[in-house]
Amino acid sequence: MALSSVWKHVLRLRRDQRGSVSVIMGVLLVPLVGALGIGFEVSNWYLTARSMQNAADAAVLAAATNGGSNYDVEAKGVAAQYGFVDGVNNISIALSNTAACPDGVNNNCYSVTISGFKPLLLSQIVGYSGDATLNGAAAKQLASSAIANHPSQLMDFCLVSLGPQGIRSNGAPKSSMACNTMSNAGSTCNGGDMGAPIGAAANMNKGCGVAQYSNVPPIVDTYAALASNIPTNPTPCGSYPQEPTHTHDPALPSSNQWLAGSKSLSGNNFVCGDLQLTGDVTIDAPAGGVLVIENGRLDTNGHSITTSDGSGLTVIFTGSNAGSYVHAPTDSTSSSTSKIDIAAPTTGPWKGVAIYQDPALTNGVDISAAGNSPAWAITGLVYLPNASVTLSGAVNKAGFGASCFAMVVKDVIVNGTGMITPTGNCIPAGLGMPSTTLPGRPKLVA
Fold first, then answer.
1. Measured distance CA(309)–CA(398) in Å, rounded
2. If you write DSSP's letter for every residue of 134-153 in order, what string do you get?
3. pTM score > 0.85 for this model?
4. How wide is the angle at C-alpha 77 spanned by C-alphas 74 and 81, nearest 5°?
5. Of 114, 68, 74, 75, which is closest to residue 91 (Cα–Cα)?
6. What is the C-alpha to C-alpha distance for residues 298 and 330, in angstroms, rounded to an integer?
7. How does pLDDT run across 276-311, given as a tens digit for each residue?
């Protein structure tokens, strides 16, 4: 009887399923908690890595935009705005401006890598031991990288300063530079940007140009080599007749005075000392003429010198640094009717060059009223590598020339009325414009 009762209880217990879920949950609790834990931690890792990636992207673009020696400071400053400070909370930021680019060719890309650690929490329940240690405990290392390049573009410039004083302006709101300016030193514009579409400087650009660039590669002076093309006078100059400055000074000889009318030039033509116009002169030089003025100036004397339709002229100033010679175009009358209206040859060794000062000249080369006394209407290059120039008037194209002008000087001051008109047709004018590379808009490449 007792045995039968026990057996009934055993059978009832076998059929009773109450509490089985608790047993199962007890068995599954450990892996369930581990799964939830790893899910939460992986999500946290992802969010942190995503934040790191955003910070790295922004930081590398800032570095590439900076492009200077302190690119790393700017990049770290941007990363800090995203909450990632180098050396704080186990965060480290690695930067480079010589990183390999994805194209596999160049090593001039910028890179930023932000890395840090997260201590392991519940993920250890499922046996994950991490891939790093933090303060002696298991941790997960996280890192995000970004690469950006700073593509460059070749840009032409119509006003170039080679010397240490660079480009300066006074009363810039009245200036209207329709072309780009470049200084191999610094640029400083007071009161406005001169209206130049692009103002660039190898050092600091302070306010010059609508778009302003600093730390630009300096322009290489390729025009100095043209000095080897300066022809030698077959009849060496003995004395150098200069314009009279005193009452009893002798007048210039007739060979140094050009009368009004048309003057045909071909090949190389030489003048010893000052050349003065005594009337409006039209140069007829279909094959391109070269006028070499040795130890003297070109004095428009209230008149104009003009190249005819289809003609080209290069005026070269050369000679000695001794004495008080002036090697430049001038106007002794300060007349509003004086004008240099010439187009450079489009072929030959002097193609594209309108006025050329021998780079060996260092004295008597400055010009105090360029574009104003006399007025300039010039197609081609005006090369004054050792001259301090004040640009006071508007430079227009030659009456029978393309819209092309470039001026290379040692340094220049642009006064309120100084301007250069559009210069977009230098290829047909025969001139290779001064140029250098400007940084383009940086972009992420990896």
1. 10
2. ETTEEEEEEEEEEEEE--EE
3. no
4. 140
5. 114
6. 6
7. 999 999 999 999 999 999 999 999 999 999 999 999
